[in-house]
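Progress against Task 2.4 (sequence-to-structure conversion) is shown through the following example record, which the project officer requested during the mid-term review.
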Amino acid sequence: MLVELHSHTHHSHQKKVFYDGTCTPEDMVRAASQLGLGAIAITDHDSVQGAKEARKFQKKYNIVVIPGEEVTTADGHCIALGIEETIKAGMTIEETIDRIHQQSGVAISSHPFDVKKDGLREKAKVCDALEIFNALNIDRLTNIRARNFAFKNKMIGVAASDAHHTSMIGHGTLEVDAGSIDGILRCIKKNRFQRVTKYPSVKTVMNYAILRLKLSYDYTSDYIEKNYSFPKRHIARNLLGMVNRSPGKIDYMFRGMAYVSFAGVLAYSAARHALKR
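Structure tokens generated for the chain above:
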């Protein structure tokens, strides 16, 4: 079966834009089933609430739901798979892994070398596995660095979509010979799987970005007013207001901005990659 290891529901939140995930747990489970996946892990930020809700729908859609969480450790993000209770944020990665293992879970370093520096970087080596393909690492080079790191340190390298919307599911999956949560986790720990990968289109990522801003509009507007000063506040407020004109002709501008952003991320990642050599 094909397994999605990293996905978010509307229970995932961020500081500036409240909704990081944009769909309900049922939406994500239904979409994974419709794509022909056999299992999906729900890994919201610092909460297992989305996973608990998602499990209510696994029989309805004939799919295995793996309970999980993306834990914000003091050192970076870590995926906890196969846990039942929320693991608190802010602990060191070593303490976090201890808590994951106490629940018989598996610790996976998520996007370890991402350009936002949310990953564990070299500390990923203490995890049970790491993502050597994260579909949202659209610069590609950070995935290459993760793959090289895994090879150098003889680590297990998995693939993940890091899906924040139903349209993102299935871009990074594992093909495993298993039919249960325990069986899937065992396949990961024993490195018995095949990675199936592809990157989402720029349009897919753009549409997700617009949607999360729409859903978070009031929250983000309030954040801008409280935390930004002129002229940054004025510029941010006007840019935010544009999302309410989508869909429409404004999408041509958004598409252009998306490609410019992609080029910027690629250039930044390439520079960092060169400096590390």
